[in-house]
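---------- Forwarded message ----------

FYI, see the assimilatory sulfite reductase (NADPH) record below. Original note from H. follows.
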Amino acid sequence: MSAGHGEAVATRDDCAEAIRTVCSYCGVGCGIDVRTKPGVGGPVIANIVGDQLHPTNLGRLCTKGATHADLMGNTEGRAIDALIRPARGEEFVAAPVDDAVAAVGTRLRAILDRHGPDSIALYVSGQMSMEAQYLATKLAKGFIRTVNIESNSRLCMASAATGYKQSLGADGPPGSYSDIDCADLFFVVGANMADCHPILFLRMADRMRAGAKLIVVDPRRTATADKADLFLQIRPGTDLALLNGLLHLLVASGDIDTDFIAEHTEGWDAMEAFLADYPPARVAELTGLTEADIRTAATMIGQAGDWMSLWTMGLNQSTHGTWNTNAICNLHLATGAICRPGSGPMSLTGQPNAMGGREMGYLGPGLPGQRSVASADDRAFVEAVWELAPGTIRADTNRGTIDMFEQMAAGDIKACWIICTNPVATVPNRTTVITGLETAELVVTQDAYRDTATNRYADVVLPAALWAEADGVMVNSERTLTMVRECVSPAGQSRPDWQLICQVADAMGFGAHFGYESSEQIFDEIRRFANPKTGYDIRGASYQRLRETPVQWPCPPGDEQNRHPIRYLNDGVLAFPTPSRRAVFHARPHMDARELPDDDYPFVLNTGRLAHQWHTMTKTGRVAKLNKLNGNPFVEINPDDAAALGICDGRTVELQSRRGRAVLPAVVTDRVRPGNCFAPFHWNDEHGEYLAINALTSDAVDADSLQPELKVCAVSLRPDRTLRASTTAAGQPSMNADVPAPAPGPWVLWASQTGNAEELAAGLVDQLEAAGLGGRLVSMDDCPVSDLAQRDVLVVTSTFGDGDPPDNGAGFWDRLRAPDAPELRGLRYAVLGIGDRSYGQFCGHARSLDTRLAELGGARLLDRRDCEVHDEESVTVWARQVIELVDVGESAPVALDAPAAPRPAEPFTRARPVAARLARNARLTPASAAKEVRQLGFDISEHDVSYAVGDSLGVLPTNSDDDVVAWLAATGLRGDDVVEVDGAECTLREALTESYDICRITPNLLAFLAETTVDQAAARDLRAARTQLDTWRLGRNGIDVVRAFGVNATIEQWQEVLVRLTPRLYSISSSPLVSPHEVQLTVSIVRYRAPDGAQRGGVCSTFLADRARDVPVFLQKSPHFRPPDDTSTPIVMIGAGTGIAPFRGFLQERRALGHTGRNWLFFGDRHRAENFYYGNDLTGMVTDGFLNRLDLAFSRDQRKRIYVQDNMIAEGAQLWAWLQDGAHLYVCGDAAGMARDVDTALDTIIGTHGQLSAEAARDYKRELVADKRYLRDVY
């Protein structure tokens, strides 16, 4: 920003006159008038309206353009400082921008000197200004001398650009938007203009009202197709066959311009024989269209006086995208409908300056002014302007975006600088991008917002100015230059892209060539790049002129005309910029998409945009008005396919390709063809797990344009097995929609505290489906009791606390045991209880459910079975028995002898843990403390896995050698004896080390000892101990009990009584945004003395503290125990002792994401001096205002003991006020003590400060649970 301009902005407190600028979204390039008003620290945008004088839109704006004031008024999440990670995996630290750019430049220069120019890559954007794009090209190709500069335009317009060059000699459309106003026919193919380019579509609709016709070609019936006179719902990837077939029919009917072909083209001689291969019958077979419709389309084109073709990604994002553009040009050249008003090919760009970037050379061989490194003359010209020695600019080029990230993943590219784009969300098969960024030594991102899917992998984030905060020039799809004006000052320390590039270049040692003081100086240099070969010329444009009006190039010096709608006319003579001065016909045969559906992946996935969102929603996702219009992701599925798969509207569907998966709500609609599905690509990691559709898409590329084939990839679809709310056609959840009638077969009703019972229930559904039954997974939370009548229901539930239901089954249990619960006539049910035998109320909730369902009239299919989660044999037997008993109705007989092979387990799950190195083992408490608490960290960088805050880490421990020796000595058994465990033989010592929990005292162990001992007094003591197990076992473990009450028993008897050594779950205490490769835990190490003075300890905690190295671990997801999605929602966190763990992760996550919602933490333990875990971090957050309230309760630091629940009651009025403001409340601690006391305190607070009766208070709390605003992670 120049000093003068900055002063003008700073003093423009209220702008009575509109500031003319241009929209920041798509490539249509609509003009906008901005008015400002005084604000804190300077002017702010008061309102925006469409520019009625702009030739593109004449005052019209779409919803996105019209909400720019809302966008600029919401500063949440803006990058206002530079962000630097001190090391990979550590949290970002805010830094001055000058320090950050100096560090970036220094590190880039070191990598350049050490590894050479191609070790550095730039990935830039069609959203950058022309000036910034030019500087990126100049720095990369002229000074770093790397071939690795790529742009997101490679994903959008590379095929159109390449096709134009091959057919017409130069990039860019030959006509203008003004052709729309006089065309007789519009041929729209692979473009949903009504949603994605709505202002042009309105202009087209105006012409249609005057009699023009519309043909739409699309595999999806879009909003544009709804307005068509002829809609051709084509099979994906077969456009080339259709285009050839249309030209075949035009030749046959004589509707071609032979004079134009003879005078202005070459290559026609080969076309007629080539086109003979595309008669209507073959084209119909390839495309799925009818011959009649194909003939109608050809007739409409042949009889149109003037006609336009308009297309975008539907043709470009293809492995034959360049050929698609050639074929469109063939149609126009053959009919002579080009370079005259109302006619011509018009490719539509998706970004506001994608056209400008192509002109600045940011793709492949490009150089500024539509030049190429392949031309020695072009290289010499650019070297002269840039004052470089001859031969500096290299003649070689790269292999596109996909190859660039593949090189990065292979370690060949060491540094990547990403500017104004989000490749983690947008590049197909995005796993390659993620791997590349994780592999690179240095990742720099430059963005206006702190958190994007890509910034999460950055080492440095440079804060960039946003729209209306900097001057610059944009070029739209029809070659019109419009100036973006600085209307308000940049937020915080953010700076224009061009200025950041100059600063980094200076830090790399190239400052003498990047000493620009304003964007205007850069633009004046760009004006020197006129190219007489292609007709590119902006010498007649200037900042002074562009402040007054947009200008369409070519605009040579002295030309005062602002509009030049038709290219390639030289003094009225048509001449194309090819060596022969003629356009070229190319015979391009039909080619299948690279990936076609097959038995494993039988559906074709198509992706695209919605009307009211844009790209990855970095901007539009922050505008409430737009989110109300398009607020949720979805996948469209044809009704025939949905019926065959048992998918109903609103049900969540898993999409899987050879590359990845997504999980999206279904919209069942005939807008998509059978065998096809469609999903928008806007949603990504910022918005939730498994929403990024580009995890699935194909990265196969066009051989010429190197553009990937995002529009066609093969996927499988299967219903997610949880009932959910219905979804409307717009993808919005409809909470009032009726749950559709279930598929035949039983419901599998589940409740689970940790996820184990849910996993078993899902597996049972798989078995039902394999047996030919339509099982359905239903969460108890989502199930009305009355829906159980006249149904077969298989119940799988765990038990929480002292025989209570899991949290997600508590509401159902309340409804089931209510006095007015409905009779359940016709219900047939079976119950599988999952529990831990070490608890006295083993499977207590399963028993309660079993009894109550019978009381309400249900009939048992099978006696209840209670087992531990690892007892696979018991679970399998129960499942097989219950499937045999289920009423199959009209289904085929159940074949149980040959069960379907289970799907392979995903890594980092209980069924398939990964071995992670214990990389951190730090004691948090002083050596003198009574409690030993440690921070542990597991390195998962070698595994392609991730985690989320709120999740738990499962650890598979082993017993110590000393404990195994002691147990063998107590029982008199030999460790070398061979035993069988899970069908495999091993020594008893190995089994005791790895498979059996020899230290746990369970009711079964005491019963076995009482029954086996010959000492009757000992037997009485053991039976008495069972009734008071929780207190009796204190200070003892299983080895002590076996030694004290020794019995003679066989190995087989011990195998029956010993419980299995099960994984221990620990709440994760880090955020993947701060620590992506290290899962951190906060663990209390249990150590004590046995009655004989021997050292004892917790099996897993001492394993981790003393012996662990490479540990089998898995992720136990907690899908609801998460910070709220709404960034402004306040949260209250209540944790005692190591219950601080998840809340450390919550706070890290909310800070990293820039959440503005208030944060309140209640924490307690014994002594502040010993047990204030992460105290410095927490008090620092209080000091800087991020943690709004921190209430501490150290129970032993004063005479009267104070606990977290006491502080809650003391602050009850404020806590109630927070709840009334929508706060989410989270609890982490032990279930029997702390969590119960907190729950009681919450009842008191709600009743007292809400002035509610006890029953009304419980109802209020139940609503909090149902709304997932009261969530517990307790043990």
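H. also flagged this: The chain has a mean pLDDT of 90.
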